[in-house]
Amino acid sequence: MYIPYPQLPAASRVWIYAAPRPFNQAELQHIEATAPAFLDDWATHGSPMQASYHILQGQFLVLAVNEAVQAASGCSIDSSMGYIRSLEQQFSLSLTDRSQVYVLQEGRVQAIPVAALKQRIADGALTPESLLLNTLAATKGALEQHWQQAAGQSWLKRYFKKALA
User: Fold this and answer.
1) Radius of gyration (Cα) for the chain, nearest Å?
2) Which of 22, 49, 104, 162 to pair with 125, CA 20 to 30 A apart?
3) 7 vs 10, 19, 72, 77, CA distance in Å?
4) Measured between alpha carbons, how far is 109 from 131 in angstroms, rounded to an integer?
């Protein structure tokens, strides 16, 4: 069952889907129209889940489930992927490409291919102080506390150690 995102507890499980560009107005309206309906019907083994969605930076779709009420199962996660794939087809973009990292530069979201990280660091385009958007957060609380992290304090720190060596 759909509930407003602010009502979910911090321990709620989240899945973050990154678009390669900001959603346009029509896409946002489509998500706002379809996400609550999908979440109202989202269930695990026939039991409804307390779930919500949230849009971050106009470019990231977050699905969230209060697992204290009902935990997500493999089948329910597959069902959510069906919804995400329908958005990908309708919008002609990928929300499931994990080969990108996202940073805030001059107030704008920049996608950097993982394969280009070493070069961006060597060029000085990505520094330990660059703000990484943490698309790997597992809970609503972690997302709220660590959505923006200094790249040098994130999983990217190993790349900076190699660049400085």
Assistant:
1) 17
2) 22
3) 9, 25, 18, 21
4) 10
Measured between alpha carbons, how far is 42 from 32 in angstroms, rounded to an integer? 16
Helix axes 74-91, 25-41, angle to 10 degrees: 160
Measure CA 77 to chain center. 15
Written as six digits, the tokens of 3 are 């509930």
Domain extents for the chain? 5-91, 100-164
Q: pTM score, two decimals?
A: 0.92
Beta bridge partners of 14: 64
- Say how many CA atoms lie within 13 Å of 40 toward its Cβ: 6
**Whole-number pLDDT of residue 162:** 66
The residue count for the chain: 165
Predicted local confidence at residue 47, as pLDDT: 85
Residue 122 half-sphere exposure, CB side, CA atoms within 13 Å? 7
How far are the Cα atoms of 28, 33, 148 from residue 57, in angstroms, in the given order?
Answer: 12, 19, 11
- Point out the residues of the chain with pLDDT beneath 70: 162-165
Query: What pLDDT does residue 163 have?
Result: 59
